[in-house]
Amino acid sequence: MKTIQKFAFSAITAAMLLGLGGCAGMSQQDKGTAIGAGAGAIGGSILTGGSAVGTVGGAVVGGVIGNQVTKP
Fold first, then answer.
1. Rounded distance, CA 12 to CA 55, Å?
2. pTM higher than 0.85 for the full model?
């Protein structure tokens, strides 16, 4: 991995972990959406070599999947 990609991956992971601390008042479906979006963003970034479009696309797809999987 290139240095910039490693930094971006580390920054996204840290932001996701810190963001999950604020999930105490969220419903299970909201948490699933947030976790799915974070995982999708990381996956999209890795699969597309750090492309912004790939990262955003992965976040959208991951958020939708996380939302649907945790439906009440």
1. 10
2. no
Whole-angstrom Cα distance, residue 57 to residue 55?
A: 5
* CB contact set of 16 (below 8 Å; sequence gap of 6+): 38, 41, 42
Closest CA to 48 of 38, 58, 35, 39: 58
* Residue listed under structure tokens 């290139």: 2
pLDDT tens-digit series, residues 38-69: 889 888 888 888 888 888 899 999 999 999 99
Q: Which two tokens stand for residue 63?
A: 């958020």
Measure the CA–CA gap between 11 and 17, rounded to whole angstroms: 10
Q: What is the pLDDT of residue 19?
A: 67
For residue 57, the SS3 value is helix
d(CA 33, CA 23): 11
